[in-house]
Hints:
Distance between the termini of chain B: 70 Å
Strand content of chain B: 5-15%
CATH class of the largest domain in chain B: Alpha Beta
Number of helices of chain B: 17
Largest sheet of chain A: none
Number of helices of chain A: 14
Low-confidence stretches of chain B: 1-7, 17-30
Order of helices and strands of chain A: HHHHHHHHHHHHHH
Radius of gyration of chain A: 25 Å
CATH class of the largest domain in chain A: Mainly Alpha
Mean pLDDT of chain A: 88
Distance between the termini of chain A: 53 Å
Mean pLDDT of chain B: 89
Shape of chain B: globular
Largest interface: A-C, 126 and 127 residues
Shape of chain A: globular
Oligomer: heterotrimer
Structural class of chain A: mainly alpha
Number of strands of chain A: 0
Low-confidence stretches of chain A: none
CATH architecture of the largest domain in chain B: 3-Layer(aba) Sandwich
CATH superfamily of the largest domain in chain A: MetI-like
Structural class of chain B: alpha/beta
Amino acid sequence: MDDRVVTALAVVIGVPAVLVGYIYLTEVVLRLAPDQRRSAIRPWLWLLPALGFLFFFLIFPTILTILRSFQGAVAGAWVGLENYAWFFGSPDALVALRNSLVWVVFLTLFTVGLGLLIAVLVDRVRYESVAKSVIFVPLAISMTAAGVIWRFMFDYQSPGSAQTGTLNGILSAFGAGPISWLQVDTLGLNTIFLIIVMAWMWTGFAMVILSAAPKGISAELLEAARVDGANEWQVFRGIVFPLLLPTIAVVSTTVVITALKAFDIIYVMTNGNFGTQVIASQMIKESFTFGNFGHGSALAVILLLAIIPIMGLNINRFRAQEALR
Amino acid sequence: MKQFKWARRVSLVLAAVSLVGAGCSSNQGGGKSVTVIGTWGGDEQKAFLAMVKPWEDQTGNKVKYTGTRDINTVLTTGVASGVLPDLAGLPGPGQMAEFVKAGALKPLDAVLDVATYKSETAPALVALGTVDGKLSGVFIKAAVKGLIWYNPTLHDYSAAPPKTWDELKSQGATNKGNAAAIWCLRLGSGAASGWPGTDWIEDLVLRQAGPDVYNSWWAGKTKWTSAEIKAAFQTYLTDVVANIKDKTEAVDPTKDFSGGGDPLFTSPPGCELFHQASFITGLGAFKGKKAGTDYNFFPFPDVNAQFSGSVEGAGDLFGMFHDTEEAKSLMKYLVTAPAQDIWVKAGGALSANKNAKSYPDDISKRSAELLASAKNFVFDASDLMPKAMNDAFWTAMLKVTKDPSSLDAVLADLDKTQTTAYAP
Amino acid sequence: MTAAPTIVQLPAERASPSRLRRTAGRYGVHVVLALLMLVWLLPTIGLLVNSLRSSGDIATSGWWTSLFPPTGLTLDSYANVLSETDIPSGFINSLFITIPATIIPIFVAAFAAYAFSWMNFPGRNLLFVAVVGLLVVPLQTTFIPILQAFGSIGIAGSFLTVWLAHTGYGLPFAIYLLRNFMGSLPKEVFESAYIDGASPVTAFFRLALPMTIPAIAALAIFQFLFIWNDLLVALIYLGATRPENLPMTVQIANLVNSQGGGWELLGPAAFISMALPLAVFFALQRYFVRGITGGAVKG
């Protein structure tokens, strides 16, 4: 145990020290370069550690995944677009695509909308810390525990027996029959319920980031607006919201991508049955349960392609932001 | 020269830390270790660790066990990347064959006394662990499937259990008493939901159509829409699903199969009969009840007299990835009767070794007996199918139990999966 | 004389509706927040109550029935979980894994975020968007090549592997968040610093970093949380070769046997596991509880 403590200490102190030392060293190295070139080289030196990590842990494996998606179930056998054709030709594909889209739209709406609402509201009450902590608690719960919690919420007993699930318990208090929530696939409602579980966990995430948003908002500006007769909604819409927009964009982008990748909840609660399958859970199944990495990699690439429009929006936003600066 | 001040500070700290470290680094002495991965958790993990303790004491080595339900992900990643434990519980004979093909699993012919192993184990289990004539996997735990459980206080079947399916149907109806339904049924099981239903179909196929059809079916050679397989599904739907309390509950994802037998013990009982494997005795309400007095079983009756004497079972397959001396020694130990006796004594498991006899109660003794004396022992069919087919089978059982009228469509879908799931 | 009443009435007319609206708004805020907090807490309360009941009770009646006598509440499940000898060592392992893997990415990302916000170079936006795009890479697709590399240099199973891996995985979000914050810092502050002759390094450590503390605090919380609750990454990188390094999440998941038996222990285990992340949240939240609307109206 003792040498583990030593290693951990060395890492916690040593690595940041090394990185800080590295940055100072770059300035020394840059002295060697001609004056004009310095500011052209410097960014790359600052980016080097990050790019190194990113390349090894994310970029390189992704390149391998893209290549693998053009091979068959057995590695090395090139099959061109066959894996993609398989996916778009299978009847379950449409359900998975539809569900992934539903996830993206509704998870973002719930999470960011509620997170923003809460972040704005709690700012005005004295029990701000308490309220924030309550919303935050689900994020501190592991996926295993969340599965158990919502199992208790969605639990179903046959009509006539005492209900053990919270939601059905509430229903029976009003004399309504028990519903098997996760089986209701009309209008994709069971997918919505799964999304609610995830939103329950991730609203705290949106709330925290929006609370930490850069506040270039001066108190005088807000007071002046209020004295002029603007009500709270107008203050929010006219001043606060536009200044929060960049952070809202960050939160939304992150949540959208999380929605695309979401598979834990689905795997734990329904395993994709009853029409709840999404692309991400299908991908895990193909690769690790069926052992078909050709199919799995193709699905991963489809996810990669799906974020291109989102990234496009982000680029536009940066360009607009730069223009203002 | 601020950067030099920093560098000086940093090196002083690091020097101090390493001095401290050198001073108090502990000495990890003694024995080698064997890493093992398996799906066992909770009480199973305790039983396994108790099983290996005598070996640890005897050899001075240590067993380092990792339990996980994500064994597929871990082993698939491990085989592809080369980072593997010494021993592992394998997900099934199909995956075992794949790992052998990838060159990851080491053959056990030189490790065990194969002759003794063969004499102590059911031939079907030996055959399942053999790939290309080489023994690559051994069973260290087994289970019998398709036992019919009942509560003797409602009606005691021990004197005259039904011997045929027709007898079972009529006796079941006669002896229902105030039970809400004849059959208890629950298919929920997390990521594997649907498998209890597959056990039903397998038992029916085995006894209605016989072992030859059974074997050609899981091998992908008999279609799902064929008369024999369809007949099994139809028997399941008309005789079982029609006689349960609530179809919605049977397939609900929140209701785990481990509590499926609980209604046997309520008053009034929720059901009269429950079809499950031998390991149900360690789960749900069974756990707190007394074997023989509160619950008992009779074996699955014959459907077709000419196919009598077949028993379906399953087991936990073990393989070796690294042939270190310690790993080989542990493997040799695990297949012996004394080792498996330890787990058997803990309850809830049957031994694959015929000579392990320390069963804690009459119920487990009888189950073990069934396994040992079976005229024809077959392995769980869905475990033998390719994973994609197995997964589709599970889903199909959920669909068809919830909505029996969808049988033809579901079987047609299964046929489609069958054409692509089996590797050429 | 008709002008005077109008002049007198006007301020009163304007004052009372807006004051009413403000009062109603204030109560409305409390009602909405109370409702939200109740809805948010309800699922967790259900787990808490059920963690204090026997598995037989859980299977047959709703948790709310235990709120009235006879409650049948018992601490047995908690005792069972704590008596599992693996849990304390798992806790220490979780700490060993989480703390370094939280600290390292913050530094690496801060340098990169500063470069993206305040240094000009061609392709800056494109590169940044590509980095953010890496958020979508499913972790499972990276396991095999990385594990292979770790195995070939012989560090498989050591804590170093998960520290490095979590750093790599956490960088896209960290850079995204920090860059957004740093980029909106007032330009004038940096300009005047450069005019005064400060180097970028000084500007970074003396100006940018202190002003970015709220974002760093938020980032630290999330990174800590995600790693603390992570199961798969630790299992893959540590499980095959060094089970003694596995974190608490794996041990908790293992309280359940392969057939699902023992799942009622997951409730108490969840609360035991939650304690530390919540403590970290409480400790760090004062750094970003500055308020969105400039902290103006507190009622």
